[in-house]
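Hello,

Our lab assistant flagged a job as stuck in the queue for most of the afternoon. It eventually completed. Since we weren't sure the result was trustworthy after the delay, we are filing this so someone can double-check. Below is the sequence as submitted and the structure that was eventually returned. Let us know if re-running is recommended.
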Amino acid sequence: MQARGTPDEDPGYHLPEEAQLQLQQVRDQLEMMAALVMPAHRRDDADDAIRLKPSALARCFRQLADEMTRALGTTRWHG
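-- returned structure --
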C-alpha cells in the first residue's frame, strides 16, 4: 500500500519549488512594472517622470514570458 500525502504520489499537477519561486519573482516584477507606470500621484510631464520606450517595455514582457514558459514547462501531471 502506498502512503498518501507526498507530492510524487498525489494526483494532480506538481510544480517544482524552484519553478514556484521563479513564478513568484515574475509576479513581483509585474507588480513593480505596474507601479512604475501607474499615474496615481505623479504627472507624466513632470521632470522626474519615468519614461519607458515601447521597445524596452516589450523586452521586459518577453523576458517575463520566457521565464514563465520555463517555469511552467517543469509542471508535471501525476495521476
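-- support follow-up --
The delay was a queue issue, not a problem with the job. The result is valid. The first helix runs from residue 17 to 37. Helices lie at 17-37, 54-73.
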